[in-house]
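Final paragraph of the annual report: two paired records, presented back to back.
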Amino acid sequence: MNPSPSFWQSAWQRLKKNKGAMAGLVMIFVAVFVAVFGYFLSPDPSPFANRIVLEIGGEKPGYTRDFLQVKKETKGEASFLSRLVSGKPDDVDYIPIASYQQTSDSVIAQKYIDEGVTERVAFAKAALAKEPVATKKFYLGTDKYGRDILSRLIIGTRVSLSVGLITVLISLSVGILFGAIAGYFGGRADNVVMWLINVIWSIPTLLLVFAVTLLLGKGFWQVFIAVGLTLWVNVARLVRGQIMVTKELQYVEAAKVLGFSHTRIIARHILPNIFGPILVIAASNFASAIVIEAGLSFLGVGVQPPQPSWGLMIKENYNFIITQNPMLALAPGFAIMLLVLSFNLLGNGLRDALNVRGRI
């Protein structure tokens, strides 16, 4: 006789039947893969995909240009691990050219400056790379600094997922702690925690994030803390309500009679049984964190240049929406939309699979 499936096995079976949730899960796995191996997938593997070629700024998707590869005095050395984490500095300078011809010992080229404007340059072959001319195609075009939009979009995935992950961990840690204290002990502890929740909830999220960001300063790590400390109230409220119901059940009463400590009862007997609703709200907070980070970067108080962020990319290129090249701003906008949609679909699927009827 086959044993009956566990709760989590049954939930996984129900989740697999939800096509929207599985599509979201697949997109999330793809985003994670792109974030981890971004510098190996990116056409521009330089740190932060920050190869600036001003002459080709603001070009449309599919733009193709020949480049003369001039050796740098110092070569960029990078191990596999350092390249995985921060990319590899370019060994050559990329000079855009309109045409070129080779002689026995040099390359003479027409340097591209602007449409219809060129300048004659010549380099000895010893000063050039083994392959002196490289042809590059910019599938999503270039921004106003001549950087490859596709490359920055790929590296920017790392920022969005990192912010989502760390802020969710922060919000879960703080929210579960305060929610457990309020729900389990009740009384004055509950009143104090609920007062704090109501105060923070009354402040608009972006305004609260601005305050935390201004206190801690602008930067990559400050965004994690700022967003994480604004999303814990939903978790705390949910955990409080769930624990208030669960602590009245018989197995909790039995644990108290056996003399178990409050910490053990909460950590080992109550929290594992309310993990389903917590998982659902974690997926929702992940999506919210991505949107908030993009908004902060767009307003200039989030991730700082040259580090690529989807919100920062929209800020740098939004003026192109009403001019000749809207894709420069629309591409990161579509990326934000797809990633947030993926987490929302997964969250809805988890809610149905775990039979979470609603949030308390």
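The closing record of the year follows.
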Amino acid sequence: MVHGNSTNFKWQRVVIKVGSALIAPDRKGVSSRYLLGIAQFIVRCREMGIQVVLVSSGSVAAGAHLFPDIDKPSVSIKKAMAAAGQTEMIGIWNNLFDFSTAQILMTHGDLRDRERYVSIKNTIHTLLDNGILPIINENDTVTTDKLRVGDNDNLSAMVAAASDADVLIICSDINGLYDKNPRTYDDAVLVPVIKEINKHTYAMAGSEAGLLGTGGMRTKVEAAEKATSHGIDTFIINGFSETAFNQLLAGQNPGTHFFPVAKPMKELVHWMTYTSDAQGEVVVENDFEFDMDIQSELLTSEAIAEVRGQFTVGDTVLITKRDGTKLAKAVSNYSSCLLSFIADQADDSFATDFQSNTGSIISPKNMAMLNNKTV
């Protein structure tokens, strides 16, 4: 834990996220200029018995130099850049290590599907157990707006949760989270410790994004919220500084350390809250409140005001009030068609009798209370 700027790290598994600016700083293809220090950090971690997962952005930036005459690339050109750049990026990582690596490309569609999520989780664990370094990136070549995570900061948090990591290290182009934008204000002060992520934290993060990547400081705070909710220590550090990595290995905090929550979410609840996309919406009246003392039936058809969207049994749904308040995400035991039908019945006894024979609409073990979290 952190006491001031000194720490006592006892890590078993680390996820480190590296962005486009580190991979291709001049947009002239991949460069080892800043990657050598990161590779040395990974090697030293492994020598200490710490398993490492690398989340590496940069395929589009790495491939951009192969399309020199295009100033404003279309979506299809960016996908082609990603396809070409991915091989260059993996190639340079392989050249920096003398042990085996494995490439894993994924989309949000893979992560939000429970069966595929578990498959990814098992693959990562198997690779680590066999001494192989997983190198993970979003599959920009095939992903669509509907299926993409959008930035590798948030992807790295999802990967950290799937990997059962102890710590997530997010590399930035500045030293960490400042109380205001250090590029604009000379008196900006680095915040070394964040014990609770709240509106004030997001206000400090602002909304600026880097020139080479899609993620700014805000997405890094979003990632920290996801990771710390799962009990994962999270650091934002300056990835351009070899000193920062040496400080981490020496048990010092070189940037901003986000503390994990006291009571981490269970794995399934965390997945539903932060990774699984709601396929539909169940709207309840404004005066509805969940009775958490009831462990069998948390939502009755009488409480449902409206069913929105189309979903099937086993899909994740968002439960909201009429005023838009988000209450929970849950796995639905009913399809949208069937749920709409029984909720529309004028005779309440019909719905009661139906549910007594078919089971609850949602189960407590398959529900995540949102409590105003970013989802």
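Residues 1-6, 209-215 have pLDDT under 50 and may be disordered. This concludes the annual technical report; the extension proposal builds directly on these records.
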